Amino acid sequence: MTVLSVNVNKIALLRNSRGRDYPSVLGFVEKVINLGVKGITVHPRPDERHITRRDVHEISEFLKGKPDIEFNIEGYPSDEFLELVIEANPAQCTLVPDKPGQLTSDHGWDVSANRDQLQMALTRLRDKEIRSCLFIDADPQLIAEVPTVNADRIELYTEEYASNYGTNEQYRIFDKYAAAAQKARELGIGINAGHDLDLENLARFLEIPDVLEVSIGHALVVESLDQGVSRVISQYLVITDS
Length: 242
Fold this sequence. Notes:
One of its GO terms (cellular component) is cytosol. Pfam families: PdxJ (PF03740). This protein has 11 helices and 8 strands. By secondary structure, it is α/β, with parallel strands linked by helices. It has one domain (3-241): Aldolase class I (TIM Barrel), CATH 3.20.20. An 8-stranded parallel β-barrel has the order 1-2-3-4-5-6-7-8, surrounded by 6 helices. α10 packs across α11. It is globular and about 45 Å long. The mean pLDDT is 96.
């Protein structure tokens, strides 16, 4: 079984475009949990263009009464971000190498080139007993460096898989991700995945063994506009529970 963690950034972006609490991020969180979702992801950015610090605290407080729901906070490991994470005390923190103002995540960590920064951030998370995860490209050589900073998990950046799904390259790219996941398993590192996974390509990706969690936001929201939230969530849970 793979945990479906719903990224609610797009709900916050829609809300912020009107200047009032509609749609309610917390209301959407509660809705998808009631539909059976077991994980919530947020990626607060410094400009608060979607998820705000207030959202993080409100979701954290709401989930205190729901110990079976995992809260995952993603972001670049600045001091400000890490302070927010420690205040919110989520189950997991995923470190992403985004620059300030970046539109969306588009690459994973080069651990060897950022070792000192990552070690300091991961030590702070470990001291607070927050599970750590590094956003990383599907490259066994990059994953081989992860034990040097003692991250608990990796999140495979799946844009390349998603963009090649349905093309002549899909089998080669799938094998690349399978090899990356195999390297992580050999090293005892937990495996998450995310970015552009959707109802069409997710089942095939989860043929890779031992994927613990998938974080899905943009596609899920777009699909929900077309089909309705309840129907979309039920389809995702069929895939991830199999």
